[in-house]
Task: structure prediction
Amino acid sequence: MSAYKRITVSPVSGALGAEVSGVDLANLDDETFDELYRAWLAHQVIFLRDQSITPEQQVAFAERFGDIHYHPFMKGLDKHPEILEIVRQPGDSYTFGDVWHTDQMFTPTPAKATMLYALETPDAGGDTMFTNLYLGHDTLSEPMRDMLKNVKTWNSGNSPNRSDGRARLDRYGGNAQMSAKLKDPGNQITETAHPIIRTHPETGKKALYIGNHTQSLEGFADAEAKPLIDFLMSHATRPDFTCRFRWAPGSMAIWDNRCTQHLALADQITGQRRMHRITITGDKPV
Ligand code: SIN
Result:
């Protein structure tokens, strides 16, 4: 018998992710939301199709998950500062979010959830990938898990990217619309240590909590930390731990940053891609 009465949940890969139907975000009752939230915790990222919502409705839906998190480095919409508009044009050489990461890992209370709503999508290109960090943890050998038990990562919001060696402000030059949104974080904390193995506060499961914001491991020499981080990143993003989502206008993805990483594919797009993103504040990882 299905665990759900109001929604239909169809997994999209063997690792994580499910498409959920039977939900109209413009008219969402509490019972349907409770089922959707349960499916979200179980599948780590859920995908809805054919939604039609206003920015106000997206904010109201987001607030069911918790308090809105404002990006330290990026400005939201003038009328809806809760919403970061992500835009890419064909020919842009910078894609926002094009490395494996988990949102706002560089803050003391990183994002719990992120929801991305598609307004305009290209006919081809611009998919998003997700990976399951519970699998990343559970498939490590016991001696490796033991070694990592008390290890902390050091995470930075504006250090040179490990893949291209450029800091945030330098990377955005190839995308005029995103670089216009950059802002100074002021006195907000944008560098933080977190346990590399974290326990999910709602499911109780352990996850390998690492992402592209991770720069070093506390107490380790750089020569020790770098190969270990490189290994753990490639382990965490093994193809068999991932799923991939193809967008269409009206699609919504909601992911759990406490147990996933994601990556916006920087492939060629055939038309403008425009998305509305809202992020929800999480707990201090333990
Ligand atoms: C992000 O990292 O939030 C962007 C994901 C995307 O645009 O697909």
Summary: The longest strand covers residues 111-120. The two ends are 35 Å apart (CA to CA).
